[in-house]
Amino acid sequence: MTDDATPSLSVSLACWLVVHRQLQLASTSSHVSLSSSSSCRRATASDAHSETSESLERRRDSLGFNPVKTDYIYVMESSEDGSFSNGNLRHYGNIEIIPSAAVLNYGQGIIEGMKAYRKQNGSILLFRPEENASRMQVGAERLCMPAPTIEQFVEAVITTVLANERWVPPSDRGSLHIRPLLLGNGPVLSVTPAPEFTFMIYVTPVGNYFEGGLKPINLVAENVIHRATPGGVGSIKAIGNYAGIMKAQAEAKANGFSDVLYLDSVHNRYLEEVSTANVFVVKDNTISTPALGGTILPGITRKSIIEIAQSQGFKVEERLVSVEELFDADEVFCSGNAVCVMPVGSITFMEERVDYGESGFVVSQQLYSALTNIQMGLTEDKMGWTRVLN
Ligand SMILES: *Cc1c(COP(=O)(O)O)cnc(C)c1O
């Protein structure tokens, strides 16, 4: 990796260490909050695995960004009629799955990704959780799976976060990453939808991506490997969408780039998105982003940024954005729940590199602040996007 591709990683790593040091302190005196959900087994203080500071120390040093074994996961199974019920918390640990499960053999599975922040007053905030719930429903329909109702999904997320409350980093130190999964379970041999489905949630703390300021990333536009194709499943968080881009991502990293910017698979000319983030191009007072059309993942951050930008007086266009426009743009940034808003420092396309940011990343910075201030509860949430848990 080149020097300019590494800062965001090393900064993030530093933040991660800070989070863990904090968690280590927290874990010596904390308890697990009671779930208010009647459909779930109540977690009690004595259920909490007491991590020794030694084991946390070991994890901190060895795992970096890898998932941490938190206290609880949430599991809910479907019944024959496709409805979900009797969800409950379980101690974090391995799950049993039959070898012939549809998710293992045919990739019948969906992920979601969201975050919980701790406010300065100690309460915990979720950001638009019902949007994740309905996106899972859309994805489930495409993959012939039943999905939890929006209320079940949100309730399950709240229950899981509260049960793992001690893992929510202190305000300003990071967030709790929440990962809901929907899996085709039960035996299948031919390519056919699973007879049973499992909805699951696990959580893990993550550090702030941008402690000490936004760190622009360097992208390479990829015109051989494609992330999604028309008629495919690029617009949903199908689990199979991610292994297919690891090769392009690994090559990009080996060549000193931070990530890949994918182009459309038909013309190899229009921007699609980055591996797990949507992309925006700023020119004067106009912010353009690829229109959703089946190959773009409808990011909740994307949708929120569009609304924030419009409320700040920007003209926002959702349309085809060609790769040539990159060479004429003032700024480019990505959006996603992991990175919020991430400025792009350079893009390389067919050996040609365009750099951004001579005049600072004013627009990216402005939108990043506006969004994270709402998510972290630092400003009044006029949009009604956040949900206070406790
Ligand atoms: C999750 C994801 C995004 C970002 O979606 P958010 O809801 O903003 O987190 C963008 N692209 C892909 C491919 C994704 O999987």
Structure explained in plain terms:
With 390 residues, the chain is an alpha+beta fold. Helices cover 27% and strands 27% of the residues. Helix 1 (7-29) packs antiparallel against helix 2 and helix 4 (129-142) packs across helix 5 (150-163). The longest helix is centred in the N-terminal third of the chain and has 23 residues, at 7-29. The protein binds pyridoxal-5'-phosphate. Its cofactor is pyridoxal 5'-phosphate. This is Branched-chain-amino-acid aminotransferase.
What attributes does this structure have?
D-amino Acid Aminotransferase, Chain A, domain 1, disordered N terminus, B_amino_transII, binds pyridoxal-5'-phosphate, eight-stranded antiparallel β-sheet, 9 helices, EC 2.6.1.42, Aminotransferase-like, 17 strands, aminotransferase
CATH topology of the largest domain: D-amino Acid Aminotransferase, Chain A, domain 1
What is the percentage of strand-forming residues?
25-35%
Q: Outline, from the CA principal axes? A: globular
Question: Could you tell me how far the N terminus lies from the C terminus, measured between alpha carbons in angstroms?
Answer: 43 Å
CATH class of the largest domain: Alpha Beta
What is the H/E order? HHEEHEEEHHEEEHHEEEEHEEEEHE
Tell me the CATH superfamily of the largest domain. Aminotransferase class 4, branched-chain amino acid transferase, N-terminal domain
Tell me the number of strands: 17
Oligomeric nature of the chains: single chain
Counting structural domains, the number is 2
| Total helical elements | 9
* Low-confidence region ranges: 1-64
The hetero molecules present are: pyridoxal-5'-phosphate
CATH architecture of the largest domain: 2-Layer Sandwich
Helical residue percent?
25-40%
Supply the helix-strand structural class.
Answer: alpha+beta
Largest sheet properties: 8 strands, antiparallel
What is the alpha-carbon Rg in Å? 21 Å
- What's the rounded overall pLDDT mean? 85
